[in-house]
Design goal:
By secondary structure, this protein is mostly helical. The chain has two domains: 99 residues, no CATH class; 140 residues, no CATH class. It is built from ten helices and no strands. The termini are far apart. The mean pLDDT is 92.
């Protein structure tokens, strides 16, 4: 049976069953395996960003963005986090120059912010995974919370329906879906801490963090929806049946991964 003949939900489930084990395996083994996984995702997202937001020299600009993010990712092993972010800045400035020279002066914002939008979440995920002893537990828990948010929001929104949050941006997102996603995220955050992370944190605080992550994950989703509407596209790409592109699948980490990395930096007193 062709994927196109299946419902959207069926396609989403099949794609998740194929991709989730790959992502979890890369996350579990960490190191070079997770880095390669993130590098591949970053390269695809660079293509998706440039394809939608830029007008010409797409191959060159995609290459610059992808190489920039991958270089910053590799730099985490030799540099401090802020120094890796300086690599993103250098790549953003180079993209800005190329876009200016090629006459795409109405696309300067897309050119400059693309490396940061893709790079900072990717660097955050890699940094979290490399935390001694708890890296896998922390990073996996974040993904579990985001997945719980997506699932809770999808089914509560479909079942309850009700008022839309921002129909001009994302017509299918409802307040019921947001609340359902938050409740699911809170429950999973509590369970993930109890069974995986085992941090000495009050359950209510962990559930609160889960709720914040759920809100930020959906803000990331809204941002990506607004970005796609601005450029007149339905999905970032059609790479993943039922989901769209890699950006469509990873928009939940755009804000949540940097938040969690910042909290861990503060908790550990780690110098940037």
């Amino acid at each position: 049976m062709a994927m196109s003949s299946l419902s959207s939900l069926q396609q989403r489930v099949i794609s998740a069953l194929v991709l989730a084990p790959i992502a979890i395996a890369a996350l579990y083994f960490g190191g070079i395996f997770f880095m390669l996984f993130l590098a591949g995702a970053a390269a695809i997202m660079a293509y998706e960003w440039c394809r939608a937001g830029l007008e010409s020299r797409l191959g060159l600009l995609t290459s610059i963005m992808a190489i920039t993010v991958i270089a910053a990712l590799a730099g985490l092993y030799a540099l401090r986090p802020y120094e890796s972010c300086l690599i993103l800045l250098a790549g953003a400035l180079l993209m800005l120059m190329v876009v200016w020279v090629t006459g795409q002066r109405n696309r300067l914002v897309s050119a400059f912010f693309g490396p940061f939008l893709i790079g900072i979440p990717v660097l955050s995920l890699m940094w979290l995974r490399d935390l001694p002893d708890i890296g896998f537990a922390i990073a996996f828990s974040l993904f579990l919370v985001i997945w719980a948010t997506d699932i809770g929001a999808y089914f509560s929104g479909k079942t309850i329906g009700g008022p839309k949050i921002a129909p001009s941006i994302s017509p299918n997102k409802t307040w019921a879906g947001l609340i359902g996603g938050m409740i699911s995220a809170m429950a999973v955050a509590y369970l993930a801490n109890h069974f995986l992370v085992k941090a000495d944190v009050a359950p209510i605080a962990m559930m609160g963090l889960g709720a914040i992550c759920a809100i930020l994950a959906q803000v990331g989703d809204f941002f990506e929806s607004a970005w796609k509407r601005h450029y007149g596209i339905k999905d970032a790409s059609n790479l993943i049946p039922g989901h769209g592109g890699v950006m469509d699948r990873l928009d939940g980490v755009f804000l949540t991964a940097p938040l969690l990395a910042a909290l861990m930096l503060i908790k550990n007193g780690t110098m940037l």
